[in-house]
Amino acid sequence: MIDRQAWAEVDLSAIRRNVRRLVALAGGESGLCAVVKADAYGHGAAPVARACLEAGATSLAVAMVDEGLALRAAGVVAPILVMGYTGPEGAGRAVAGGLSVAAVSVENARMIAAQAELRGRIARLHLKVDTGMSRLGVPASEAAAAATAIVSTPGAMLEGVFSHFADADDAGSDFSRIQLERFNEATAAIEAAGVRGFARHIANSSAYIRIPASRLDMGRVGIAVYGLGATGLGSDGPALVPAMALKARVTQVRTLPIGDSVGYGRTFVARRASRIGTLPLGYADGVTRGLSNRGWVGFPSGRAPIVGTVCMDQFMVDLTDLPDEGEGSTATLFGPGGPSAGELAELLGTIDYEIISSVSVRVPRIYLDSRLEEEEPC
Known about the structure:
With 378 residues, the chain is α/β, with parallel strands linked by helices. The protein folds into two domains: 11-226, Alanine racemase (TIM Barrel); 244-368, Lyase, Ornithine Decarboxylase, Chain A, domain 1 (Beta Barrel), CATH 2.40.37.10. 29% of the residues lie in helices and 24% in strands. It contains eleven helices and 20 strands. Strands 2, 3, 4, 5, 6, 7, 8, 9 and 10 form a nine-stranded parallel beta sheet that branches. A five-stranded antiparallel beta sheet has the order 12-15-18-17-16, with no helix packed on it. Strand 13 and strand 14 form a beta hairpin.
């Protein structure tokens, strides 16, 4: 960080505060599975996982086997569910690492169970039921037959049955209700077939907050853990706090005369004598080229527009109207003191999930942990 002068601050106190408030929302009637896939949406999987568990999360979820094994290597012993597709090689490593695994078909379940038997283990499986996402899983109408086949497979244990909402963040849509009905009918059919003892889970962040009936045995909460994205924050739900800020220090300031250009393609030409500052982050770090000549960063004394085309490792800002800022001044690309991740997402036509998870691993994470939230009521 000292050499490059760019970093992401991650507030673990905010993570714990968010999780505690989400846990309180369910009143102890549902467990909370904290989703820490994609390196905890860019925040750092191991420290975030520990913070979530400290705050009351009952389990963790990742997208792929390697993510779960990395948490095991970091000393995390809590239950971890791999939600994505797992093939033969990954299945063996998942079972050996004590991970629970999604089964997206009967054939997939039998393959995972076979890998478990080879190792003298039992595969803890969560049957994925497709209720309308059309991504992975067995059709809801076939869930009972699939569950029956799984529990009769040597080496397999049906630990859970789950699905995923397609548009729970759209408060005006009725499709989540339809999906929940399909899922409840599927799990009822499974129980009617004589299969019992599995955990039911379908709620993502927005559903967990906005649709209490969807929490069932457990909610899989991702973006809300990080204080972003989910419909129902604030007045309609718990007050959550964004946990990440992306910052950099100005490495050089140049004064350009009228007519001089900035950056590749000469997309910015000075119309006045201009003070141009360089910041050591670029599109390889997650600062997309879409911000070229459109975005802005925050300084203690005000906003500075991004000028010129964002480079791979650097980009430039116009400091002409901020005479107090110069070399060594700290800019906030998103977070307190700068635009929010949501504002950047709106500008770029995307979602805040993409903004935070795009911050590259080559950007150092600095962890803040005041624990002041322990003094605050939920």
